[in-house]
Design brief:
binds zinc ion; HDAC_classIV; two-stranded antiparallel sheet; 11 helices; alpha/beta
């Protein structure tokens, strides 16, 4: 593994440290090199088959479009992003019940979760290959992004954010509980992480992770959502420690000051070791499901606020793209990521990464890396 900086730099300006993690028990934690961005993406994220995807308002190719925009801007290419592995049955069982995973063998159940009724008519092997497998790869991507954030200070999965799915129930286009899984994997494998904050800014209530982490003192959930749309899940609202409910049509002038006030407050009070940022873009004006009125510039400012607050406190953050149902959202997500780069909030350099060694709790087969950072 090559070092990200010149040795002389390291000797005079930086402190070198070594961190290790288990590759035997964390097969989703794939190795990366210093030339790669902690941006996770695979072409296999994209769902598209027989034209049925057009029956859902969700742009099921948006992940590929985000990547294409970033590539056109010369930020990344196929070699400089990190390609995740598919989450296996064994990985999924860390959070999911076997009954729930078995239920996905019924196409009718998957059709309900994806809200595309004709999917019920397809043989399950096609549903597995064309719908569920991309979601399992995105889930592997979220788990990987969480680990990359600990190493690099930040990471973005250009997918994931299935916040309506809990360990025992799917819904709202979410078949796997990737947020819960990403956090549980950190708790299990990385001993510098014992407190996590979920900042869920998708337009909908994140009732999946809320069901999973209800009464869990290790996890602080902040949820900012339109309270008058799906899922209106009252049973799990008690899991939200910072609950901010929005009215239909909330605009930038109301929304952004709320974030500027509550995010720093929550971070200073809870002091998490990691932030899972669910950055749904269905808050965008004109979205028929989110029913809010945030402008494209408002979304870019929103993401900037979250990253600024995380980075200045040196708290690792991983972002998931989650909901966002309009054709123009891919462009906005890419613009927002480019803005984070322009503002110096993200970079490819290890030297700009957070000072968090990655020490695994169960190192049966260890991989050793050298990394460097300023001002430990
Ligand atoms: Zn949503």
């Amino acid at each position: 593994m090559k070092c990200a900086c010149a040795l002389t730099d390291c000797v005079f300006n930086k402190i070198c440290f070594v961190f290790t993690y288990s590759t035997q028990q964390c097969h989703l934690y794939v190795e990366t090199n210093a030339n790669q961005w902690p941006i996770v993406y695979s072409d296999d994220y994209n769902i598209g088959f027989l034209g049925l995807e057009r029956l859902h308002p969700f742009d099921s190719g948006k992940w590929g479009k985000v990547f294409q925009h970033l590539k056109e801007a010369k930020m990344v290419n196929e070699d400089s992003v990190v390609v995740p592995r598919e989450a296996t049955q064994e990985d999924l069982l860390v959070v999911h019940t076997s009954d729930y995973l078995d239920s996905l063998r019924w196409s009718a159940n998957v059709a309900m979760i994806c809200e595309v009724p004709p999917v019920a008519l397809l043989p399950n092997f096609i549903v597995q290959r064309k719908v569920l497998k991309p979601m399992r790869i995105q889930t592997g991507g979220s788990i990987l992004a969480a680990k990359l954030a600990v190493e690099r200070g930040w990471a973005i999965n250009i997918g994931g954010g299935f916040h309506h799915c809990s360990g025992s129930k799917g819904g709202g286009f979410c078949a796997y509980a990737d947020i819960t899984l990403a956090i549980k994997f950190l708790f299990k494998h990385i001993d510098v992480v014992s407190k996590a904050m979920i900042i869920d800014l998708d337009a909908h209530q994140g009732n999946g992770h809320e069901a999973d982490f209800d009464k869990d003192e290790q996890v602080f959930i902040m949820d900012v959502y339109n309270a008058y749309i799906y899922p209106r899940d009252m049973k799990v609202k008690s899991a939200i420690k910072k609950n901010i409910e929005l009215w239909h049509g909330t605009d930038d002038k109301t929304y952004l000051p709320l974030l500027r006030k509550h995010i720093p407050e929550a971070l200073d009070n809870f002091k998490p070791d990691i932030i899972a940022y669910n950055a749904g873009t269905d808050v965008l004006e004109g979205d028929p499901l989110g029913n809010l009125s945030i402008t494209p510039q408002g979304i870019i400012e929103r993401d900037q606020i979250v990253f600024q607050e995380a980075r200045k406190r040196n708290i690792p953050i991983f972002m998931l793209t989650s909901g966002g149902y309009q054709r123009r959202t891919a462009r906005i997500i890419a613009d927002s990521i480019l803005n984070l780069q322009k503002e110096g909030l993200i970079s490819c350099n290890y030297s700009d990464s957070g000072p968090r060694g990655n020490r695994c709790k169960s190192d049966n087969k260890q991989t050793t890396y050298n990394t460097f950072h300023h001002n430990l």
